[in-house]
Design the sequence.
């Protein structure tokens, strides 16, 4: 793995949800009637910057609303949490409260982070309310269908509501945990190789260290690691191929160096094949839903023609083929890329399925 300085677009264009995508969301249970939408939270009176334990700016601000506005928001934010978590069973909402609502001033989606607290034991949970964007929705769906992670989210016109993905932020893990005595560095290097492969196969971009988290699970005599993406704004948007490979971001350089030190090329290829095989299994097991998604994605505008042409040329050069059409859509490139990268593994899926 090598590293080069390559940065994604500073501000990505927001793309509206098309009729086709809206129909897909309704068909597969993602669209819901929500008690409030993103724009309702923009009526804040003022906000206070939030600092971390070291006194550094977190790019989040605690919002404050006038009392009449807050009384409405508090009730509906609790109801929205119930819709997200219990399919609208409001019988558990009496002991819930909203501890605070934070607003992020950094990044593309400017999300609100809602902290819900249980009055009985002070335990809390978070969820996010974000501006609707077609690119992000496609990213969430592809993550749900092709990665080892399940994603809970709901949509409504103008709004996406997402559950909180628990884990240690990637930049924090690199600074505080990577060199810790109890960190199994070899296992983590393996997971970074697999994460790198997952992102490239489904063309998820901008996986700098603060756009993913690390989930640590105790295992027999040691730990297992899972890297999970938490930002999907750059799903198949950029034209530069390397922006879909986490290994090329300078923020991830320590992980590239770690993998280079601990893994030889044969081992890296083994882990890449393992990840592609699992993705092929997921694609085959949910092929009709994925077909629905890709058929819709093919007709949607989620990037510019210049970026589409640039990426098509780069992928044709990378694979030594002419399969990627520069005059198509990003959805067509994603579909073609899945076929190109998973072709070998998909051929084995019927044989492997017959064993069960």
Sequence:
């Amino acid at each position: 793995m090598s590293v080069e300085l390559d940065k994604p677009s500073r501000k990505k264009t927001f793309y509206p949800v098309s009729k086709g995508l809206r129909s897909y969301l309704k068909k597969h249970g993602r669209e819901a009637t929500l008690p409030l939408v993103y724009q309702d939270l923009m009526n804040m009176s003022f906000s206070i910057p939030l600092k971390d334990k070291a006194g550094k700016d977190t790019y989040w601000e605690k919002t404050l609303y006038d009392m009449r506005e807050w009384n409405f928001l508090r009730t509906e934010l609790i109801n929205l949490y119930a819709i997200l978590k219990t399919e609208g069973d409001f019988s558990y909402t009496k002991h819930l409260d909203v501890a605070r609502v934070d607003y992020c001033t950094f990044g593309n989606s400017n999300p609100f982070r809602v902290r819900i607290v249980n009055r009985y034991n002070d335990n809390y949970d978070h969820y996010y309310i974000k501006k609707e964007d077609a690119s992000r929705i496609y990213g969430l769906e592809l993550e749900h269908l092709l990665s080892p992670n399940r994603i809970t989210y709901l949509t409504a016109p103008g709004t996406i509501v997402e559950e909180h993905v628990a884990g240690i932020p990637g930049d924090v893990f690199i600074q505080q945990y990577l060199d810790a005595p109890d960190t199994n560095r070899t296992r983590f290097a393996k997971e970074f190789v697999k994460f790198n492969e997952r992102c490239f196969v489904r063309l998820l971009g901008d996986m700098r260290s603060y756009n993913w988290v690390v989930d640590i699970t105790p295992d027999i005599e040691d730990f297992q690691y899972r890297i999970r993406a938490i930002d999907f704004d750059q799903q198949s948007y950029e034209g530069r191929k390397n922006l879909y490979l986490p290994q090329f971001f300078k923020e991830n350089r320590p992980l590239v160096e770690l993998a280079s030190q601990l893994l030889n090329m044969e081992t890296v290829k083994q882990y890449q094949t393992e990840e592609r095989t699992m993705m092929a299994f997921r694609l085959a097991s949910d092929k009709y839903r994925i077909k629905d998604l890709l058929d819709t994605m093919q007709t949607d505008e989620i990037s510019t023609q210049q970026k589409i042409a640039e990426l098509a040329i780069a992928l044709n050069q990378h694979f030594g083929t002419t399969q990627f059409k520069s005059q198509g859509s990003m959805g067509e490139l994603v579909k073609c890329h899945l076929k190109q990268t998973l072709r070998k593994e998909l051929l084995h899926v019927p044989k492997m399925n017959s064993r069960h």
